[in-house]
Design brief:
This protein is an alpha/beta fold. Helix content is 27%, strand content 17%. It is built from seven helices and six strands. The chain has a six-stranded mixed beta sheet. The chain is globular.
Length: 211
């Protein structure tokens, strides 16, 4: 069995920072409504979160999760939302391998083919993998929007393909929105909350509190 390792699917402790999550994110597209399905998972811990967001909310979500790898449909390849282009620092079109060229972000961008963005096989995928049972009730009861379903499907299909069917035991992150202060990336970086000298934690608030 050979697993493909990408920036968002690392699980080896020696390759991960103990002070930050390693999130893999999928962003589904609804161009006509400017709304997106935003799903994110840390496969080293199993933490999963799903959001339905508009363009105005996208920047704060990207800053909050700071994903290491971002999965996009081909329809967004050369039509990135302004907040996403700003986050990636991508002043040039994406290269043929789907990664941003000369961007400032550490986030790797992977474009998936159209068949990855269909939720038709999602219920069966969940039913055949006990590790995904946290999603069974939300999917069966229709608690996820269509855009959220598409982003979750792309996320799971990518993990299924790269990890040869090996999934982490997922749990849904239940975050109380009223207890969250959202900061855009520039504001967060200017406050040195988690990044300090030379893009490390030295000189940051995180380095002092270590929480």
């Amino acid at each position: 069995m050979v697993r493909l390792i990408s920036a968002g699917t690392l699980v080896e402790d020696s390759l991960l920072s103990p002070r930050r999550s390693n999130f893999l994110c999928a962003l589904s597209d609804a161009t006509e409504s400017h709304h997106y399905g935003f799903s994110v998972v840390d496969i080293s811990t199993g933490e999963l979160a799903v959001h339905n967001v508009c363009e105005a909310q996208l920047a704060s979500l990207l800053a909050r999760y700071d994903p290491r790898e971002l999965l996009l449909p081909s329809t967004l390849r050369n039509n990135l939302p302004p907040s996403l282009r700003s986050y990636l620092g991508a002043s040039k079109p994406m290269s043929d391998n789907g990664m941003n060229e000369e961007g400032d972000s550490e986030c790797v961008v992977t474009c998936l083919p159209e068949d990855s963005w269909s939720d038709q096989g999602l219920a069966q995928l969940i039913s055949t993998h006990p590790e995904l049972q946290a999603l069974q009730q939300p999917v069966e009861k229709g608690l996820l929007s269509h855009m959220e379903m598409l982003s979750v499907t792309a996320l799971l299909q990518y993990i299924n393909k790269t990890q040869m069917g090996l999934f982490p035991r997922l749990f849904l992150s239940e975050e109380e929105e009223l207890g969250v202060l959202e900061l855009d990336r520039n504001t967060r970086d200017s406050l040195n909350l988690i990044r300090g000298v030379h893009d490390s934690t030295i000189g940051s608030v995180m380095n002092v509190l270590d929480q």
